[in-house]
Amino acid sequence: MSNTRDLNETPLHKNNNIVNEICTKGICMEMCPSEEVILRVKEKMVHVLELTRSGHKLVKCYCRSAANSNMAVPQLLRPFRVLSDTVHYLLLEISNRSNIKMSVMYDFLDDRLRAVRQDMTIQRLPPEECVVLLEPMIRFYIYYGYRLCDHPISEFDPVLNKKYLLECMKWFLNCCDVLQNTDKVEDDVDTILTHFNSLDISKTRPELSCDRILVESLYILCNLDSIHPLYRVSALKLAYNIAIANIKCNFIKIFKLSRKLCPLTFSALCLHHPMIQRRALQAMSFAYNSQYLTVPVEVLKQWLAFNSYEEARSTCMHYGLKVVKEKHGVCFNKHTFKVDVEQHQLTKYYQAKVLQLKLEDVLSYTV
């Protein structure tokens, strides 16, 4: 495998390459250190999702590091087993609460998962442990990135979500590369997953999985205009072909191939729909340039994965294309296409299977 992925070397990734340096080992065996529990209960800073019938069950918050603070305190850091229990609890139990607004749920889970990554970073957990913790986080960010894509910026920030998603992806894939270079990837991850799934916490709930091929596919589809992810794994044929079709501006092929994607990879691609549709309509304005001939709106809807006739019609009009009502068709004209207008807003594609799935469902399947 060619290691040409465009990774920015951050402390998150460098940590996995440090082998001779003494690392701080966490000894906190609870999901939230007692010191934080006492403080937050006293200050009435317990989140609604941490309230239980018997009182409360707190999970460690993300904490920004201050200039003179020492965060490498063993009593405040959770070891791998506790972190794995925490990830299970957050993504397989808390996420099932149906009485909480989705954006509130996302904010809580995002904060607590960032705290998990913070503990991982400070302790410099080995790559075989990191991949097991990071993979479900990647699914989490993809899932909510699509489910909340039409929410106002005050409730959901897609830019920040993608930042955390790519951070987790790059860290995960960097760990995989390190493991592969030492020929440990299969044995080490399988061993940890076996232990991971033998814990009591897993016996009463669905199991999380660790699927590298899925993450590699997501990495391609989340970086659709970049060629670097295409050189990584030969098994990623479908995602690879979609990316190549995009580079070659074969937009109809993109949507045709997308029907074969799994729910998560399809969701990752759907976030690019407005960009792909705009570029397709602009290309068609040159290819089908005519003052008299039209392309049926219904055909356009099928080609470019619009939800409805009306959505296809309004999008064409947004870019200055004339819709001939009598013919139910679009008259493409390269001179009238508006290249300077803002890209039309993303709307959820009703055929996206992820819209019918719970977070629990997307955390456990493999491709």
TrEMBL record:
InterPro entries: SAC3/GANP/THP3 (IPR045107), SAC3/GANP/THP3_conserved (IPR005062). One of its GO terms (cellular component) is centrosome. It comes from the Eukaryota. GO terms for biological process: centrosome duplication; spindle assembly. Residues 31-324 form the SAC3/GANP/THP3 conserved domain. Pfam families: SAC3_GANP. PANTHER family: 80 KDA MCM3-ASSOCIATED PROTEIN, SAC3 DOMAIN-CONTAINING PROTEIN 1. This is Jg1013 protein. It comes from Pararge aegeria aegeria. The lineage of its organism: Eukaryota, Metazoa, Ecdysozoa, Arthropoda, Hexapoda.
